Amino acid sequence: MSQTRPQLAHLTATLNELKERGTYFKLRVLDGEQGPVSIYDGREVINLASNNYLGLCDHPKLKEAALKATEQYGVGSGAVRTIAGTMKIHLELEEKIAAFKNVEACVVFQSGFTANAGTVSSILGKEDFILSDELNHASIIDGARLSRAKIKVFRHKDVAHCEELLKEVQNEPGHKLVITDGVFSMDGDIGPVDKLADLAEKYGAIMMVDDAHASGVLGRNGRGSVDHFHCHGRVDVQVGTLSKAIGALGGYVCGSRDLIEYLYHRARPFLFSTSHPPSVAATCIAAFDLLESEPERIERLWENTRYFKQQLTSAGFDVGGKTTPASETPITPIIIGEGKLTMEFSKALFEAGLLATGIAFPTVPEGKARVRTIVSSEHTKAQLDRALEILTGTAKRMGIL
Ligand SMILES: *Cc1c(COP(=O)(O)O)cnc(C)c1O
């Protein structure tokens, strides 16, 4: 019998609505390691759904680092960073990231989500203005709301629109923040970081970039979008994640020493939530070593990206660029349009041996539902070819192609 009491009946009603719309989902359960081929719900599938861009989730050197740190330092840090939970290994990771990113300082958060939300909400206040791309990540939106600053949303990648909005608030006393994703997670396109940095400079605004999907993917050795656009020294706040290409968990903020020390004092997730277990910090240190020592992983990632996109395009799929932004990264959406059909397509792909996430409204605009694919450096050509066979076969059967 259901344990839902009448107090929560409205939740059940919403779930029923989702079921009717065909966008209700169950969690797929991974049994074993996150890899190019994985076992979900007891079925072996080619995995085009994870953010494990460089195959680091199960890399032997990262596992070894985690085990060694656990042996040496235990499993938990025991406190928030500001009380008693700052371990040497946390600082070692932060120094490593700062050097990698060519900035003065870095602070690590529990996740990319908390890094964004904690930073945006603490560096701005009621009198300030946030100029945010309409497709920016939810954690930026939440951070913006928590800051109570006035939020001005510019059209996706529309630098001229951003300038219009900046002009409107130019003479207001508050601080202005221009913020964009480095790589947009649903369409795989790259934010105009260089042009927005120009604008920020022109109007005296703070410039911030969220590089969750760009870290380990764009720029020299995966240094991110700021490196990709040669914008060193022109972006005040760089956020990255340790949860995607880096293969573990966490987020970080890079910038000036004062920015980082300010976050020590004001960013609420830093102040009120316990720091990483030492094993996670050790894992990430090993991952940054690998970005430098095995750059061929990133080359393989881009080779696979080019191959897979080109094959999808010649098969006749809409991979974006018509009614949606054009992907420029390993994230390749297959635009279907209707939410329900998209979810059914994703389900049929799974049954045929391919995991590719169906994404519908409200995560993407109504009518622009898609199956999102993400290749990794570790997919073999044979696996990608098999994935293409499954995609085209299933799409033809369902009248999508
Ligand atoms: C995934 C993602 C985040 C959140 O990172 P986590 O480390 O998973 O919390 C933030 N911003 C963007 C653009 C993302 O894609």
TrEMBL record:
Pathway(s) served: Cofactor biosynthesis; biotin biosynthesis
Catalytic activity, as annotated: 6-carboxyhexanoyl-[ACP] + L-alanine + H(+) = (8S)-8-amino-7-oxononanoate + holo-[ACP] + CO2
Swiss-Prot/TrEMBL keywords: Acyltransferase, Biotin biosynthesis, Pyridoxal phosphate, Transferase
GO biological process, one term: biotin biosynthetic process
E.C. no: 2.3.1.47
Cofactor: pyridoxal 5'-phosphate
SUPFAM superfamilies: PLP-dependent transferases (SSF53383)
InterPro entries, A to Z: Aminotrans_II_pyridoxalP_BS (IPR001917), Aminotransferase_I/II_large (IPR004839), AON_synthase_class-II (IPR050087), AONS_Archaea/Firmicutes (IPR010962), AONS_Archaea/Proteobacteria (IPR004723), PyrdxlP-dep_Trfase (IPR015424), PyrdxlP-dep_Trfase_major (IPR015421), PyrdxlP-dep_Trfase_small (IPR015422)
Residue stretches making up the Aminotransferase class I/classII large domain: 44-390
An MF annotation (GO) of this entry: 8-amino-7-oxononanoate synthase activity
Superkingdom as given in the UniProt entry: Bacteria
Pfam families listed in its UniProt record: Aminotran_1_2
Functional note: Catalyzes the decarboxylative condensation of pimeloyl-[acyl-carrier protein] and L-alanine to produce 8-amino-7-oxononanoate (AON), [acyl-carrier protein], and carbon dioxide.
Subunit structure: Homodimer.
Family indicated by similarity: Belongs to the class-II pyridoxal-phosphate-dependent aminotransferase family. BioF subfamily.
Identification of the protein by name: 8-amino-7-ketopelargonate synthase
Organism: Terriglobus albidus
